[in-house]
């Protein structure tokens, strides 16, 4: 097995895939290590997490360049991911202290308390698009909560996964508290099937989330946290200045080559005096975006998608949208240097028949492709934006507080922004989707919540000598 750089086709990592037959032993070792780890005091766990963050800080250039090389991110984008990964340590500690520290509810007597105990072994399945930050956002709170972790990085980001494992070892994490399994579906399936697994945390596509949900059918003792994709809408009011619109909408749709789960896939333009100029500016801005590789001069604004296969899949989606009735405003174009260097595209769905619209809003794609719609009113835009089985992110440009409040309440998404890109997220907020974009287990600041179980206690240092049966007399 090997990972191939999307920049130059060089081999970034080469090694053996974890044999599914070896997974039961890995899970058993993790369980044994976790039983000791949960006894380690919280202050020591915090100390190790802080050392992990320090290791990232001291080696940020090394891991930044590895992310660039293995998944093709532009340098500034990879550096931003590393910074977010470092910040995640302090944010997770704060989240635990705010949301998951034990508390005395009533001094009594008897005393009433809440404590939190770890789940056991948590299986973390990471994505390629943020190979350090997104799995780290689940690994860190899981470890803080006293769980052992078995992580399978994306098969397209194996080197970053190994780098993370080494970072935890350097931070002083005990052996087998953090474990890697390597490969595609088979080792992950074996890990999920393990009787030692008590939590499964996935960041990935809807199909993968559905498959894991089915695999765990009947195993209600395993906590499943799904952070999935979306078909995210951005609604633009007709009086918003055209240039600002073009910048925010294009950033929402095309940042990281459209390979963020929060990227806008649909843009609704509400009829108004600025609408024609808004769309014209958006098309112009999109056509002017520099597409290229890390190291290009002048620097690229849009990098490659993860592989030629991903580009091919995106082209199939583009062709499907054309067949549904979309018209091309910025057509498909790939760079002659590499098939996975795909220029951003815009399709106009304003004339797509109503009978085909349900297919459009149910599609899930991962790349720099935006579908725009012209609508007459805000009500039309809101109804169309919400008409999708997904519900990860959404944004409204323009309008007033009352209109935004209605947008939040009715659009059906877990991340809803106002006059900001759909990709805007904060480490101090929850992060997760509704509908087919998640299963009510938001990550971000709230990831700490799905890493432990609350335990309620009524406590007294002495036995109550009164007769409890007296109530029945």
Automatic annotation (TrEMBL):
Q: In which pathway does it act?
A: Amino-acid degradation; L-proline degradation into L-glutamate; L-glutamate from L-proline: step 2/2
Say which domain of life the source belongs to: Bacteria
Record GO cellular component, one term:
cytoplasmic side of plasma membrane
Q: Which PROSITE patterns match?
A: ALDEHYDE_DEHYDR_CYS, ALDEHYDE_DEHYDR_GLU
Recite the UniProt keywords alphabetically.
NAD, Oxidoreductase
- Give the Gene Ontology MF terms in alphabetical order: L-glutamate gamma-semialdehyde dehydrogenase activity
Residue stretches making up the Aldehyde dehydrogenase domain = 2-452
Task: State the active site.
Answer: 227
Q: Which PANTHER family match?
A: DELTA-1-PYRROLINE-5-CARBOXYLATE DEHYDROGENASE 1, ISOFORM A-RELATED (PTHR42862), DELTA-1-PYRROLINE-5-CARBOXYLATE DEHYDROGENASE 2, ISOFORM A-RELATED (PTHR42862:SF1)
Family named by the database record = Belongs to the aldehyde dehydrogenase family.
Query: What name does this protein carry?
Result: L-glutamate gamma-semialdehyde dehydrogenase
Species source reads Stieleria marina
Organism lineage string? Bacteria, Pseudomonadati, Planctomycetota, Planctomycetia, Pirellulales
Q: Which gene encodes it?
A: astD
